């Protein structure tokens, strides 16, 4: 007796994954922040930490569908699990370009961004917390709204270049210096009249030594005083906020280095005359914030910031 031939049932083709509106919001948040964790995405969307597992599952699907890439945060302790950091993949870039009108084509080459220095990731993650706090400030103080925010990677699309001078034992050395702020925030304050409060952000992770830090102070002074800032940002409102999650001691160290630079011009100065820049003290503020999630009101409206040559704490945005 001949056995009948068994016919295997055909496999049904998997339906292509359809992105939901929430998926689209998540991809746009990843696009803006460049690198972001699942917890930060929850905070960006103003959702409870109770939704972390659901967000992680969503990101897992987007990773499997090749809309995002991911990598582990650097390990500083010998044990313990590390959360993923997410970034756009090529498919996510294409989707945002074609369907959301987001200019993600200038975003990055995904392969390059997976090769990050271990020092870059904590810096980017800490910077994200300031942007997330800025996004939600209006919920705590309705008079203040975030009109515009630009992340470091966006600012890199422009050229910020100034001329600095360094005095040697024999002559004056001129140096063309390029730099990029870590972020730009433009707040609008309702009132009569309405006001604008713009902030250039510098996220400090206690990695810059004194000469490099003072060179940056001189660069910012030249950038503002030369009119280049007004030309590129279309405003005269500005404060340069150096923020650190590494503690009050580091914030006070930066303040002292800034005071030395402005008073004595020990290495670099923004003019040929080399005169001191004490008049530029009002451009700078220094503050320490806790690592991790930030309270918007504490960061922007509380008196935790210190200016050079001033012992009275002040707010980043004065109402």
Write the layout of secondary structure elements.
Blueprint: H1 21-33, H2 38-44, H3 52-64, E1 68-72, E2 84-88, H4 90-99, H5 110-113, H6 120-140, E3 144-151, H7 152-155, E4 161-167, E5 172-178, E6 183-189, E7 195-203, H8 210-225, H9 228-233, E8 239-244, H10 248-264, E9 268-269, E10 284-288, H11 296-301
Parallel strand pairs: 7-8, 8-10
Antiparallel strand pairs: 1-2, 3-6, 4-5, 4-9, 6-7
Largest sheet: 5 strands, mixed
- Please identify the structural class as seen in this structure: alpha+beta
**Number of helical regions:** 11
Distance between the termini: 94 Å
Order of strands across the main sheet = 3-6-7-8-10
Number of structurally distinct domains? 2
Rg, alpha carbons? 24 Å
Number of strands: 10
Features:
2 domains, Arc Repressor Mutant, subunit A, three-stranded antiparallel β-sheet, elongated, alpha+beta
Structure notes:
With 319 residues, the chain is of the alpha+beta class. It folds into two domains: 99 residues, Winged helix-like DNA-binding domain superfamily/Winged helix DNA-binding domain (Arc Repressor Mutant, subunit A), CATH 1.10.10; 202 residues, no CATH class. Helix content is 37%, strand content 19%. It contains eleven helices and ten strands. Strands 3-6-7-8-10 form a five-stranded mixed β-sheet, sandwiched between helices. Strand 6 and strand 7 form a beta hairpin. Helix 2 crosses helix 3. It is elongated and about 90 Å long. The chain starts with 20 loop residues before the first helix and ends in an 18-residue tail after the last helix. The mean pLDDT is 88.
């Amino acid at each position: 007796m001949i056995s009948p031939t068994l016919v295997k049932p055909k496999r049904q083709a998997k339906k292509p994954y359809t992105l939901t509106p929430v998926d689209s919001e998540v991809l746009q948040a990843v696009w803006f922040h460049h690198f972001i964790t699942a917890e930060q995405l929850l905070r960006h969307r103003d959702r409870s930490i109770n939704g972390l597992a659901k967000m992680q599952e969503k990101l897992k699907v987007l990773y499997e569908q090749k809309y995002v890439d991911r990598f582990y945060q650097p390990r500083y302790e010998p044990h313990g699990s590390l959360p993923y950091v997410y970034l756009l993949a090529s498919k996510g870039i294409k989707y945002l370009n074609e369907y959301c009108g987001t200019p993600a084509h200038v975003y990055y080459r995904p392969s390059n961004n997976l090769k990050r220095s271990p020092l870059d990731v904590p810096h980017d993650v800490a910077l994200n917390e300031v942007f997330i706090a800025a996004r939600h400030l209006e919920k705590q103080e309705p008079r203040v709204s975030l009109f515009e925010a630009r992340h470091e990677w966006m600012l890199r699309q422009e050229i910020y270049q100034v001329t600095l001078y360094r005095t040697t034992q024999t002559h004056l050395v001129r140096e063309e210096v390029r730099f990029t702020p870590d972020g730009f925030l433009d707040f609008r304050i309702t009132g009569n009249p309405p006001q604008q409060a713009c902030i250039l952000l510098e996220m400090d992770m206690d990695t810059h030594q004194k000469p490099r830090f003072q060179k940056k102070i001189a660069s910012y002074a030249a950038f503002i005083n030369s009119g280049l800032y007004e030309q590129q940002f279309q405003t005269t409102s500005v404060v340069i906020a150096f923020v650190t999650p590494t503690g009050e001691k580091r914030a006070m160290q930066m303040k002292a280095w800034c005071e030395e630079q402005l008073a004595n011009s020990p290495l670099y100065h923004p003019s040929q005359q080399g005169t001191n820049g004490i008049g530029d003290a009002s451009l700078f503020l220094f503050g320490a914030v806790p690592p991790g999630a930030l309270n918007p009101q504490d960061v922007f409206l509380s008196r935790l910031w210190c200016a050079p040559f001033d012992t009275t704490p002040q707010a980043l945005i004065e109402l």
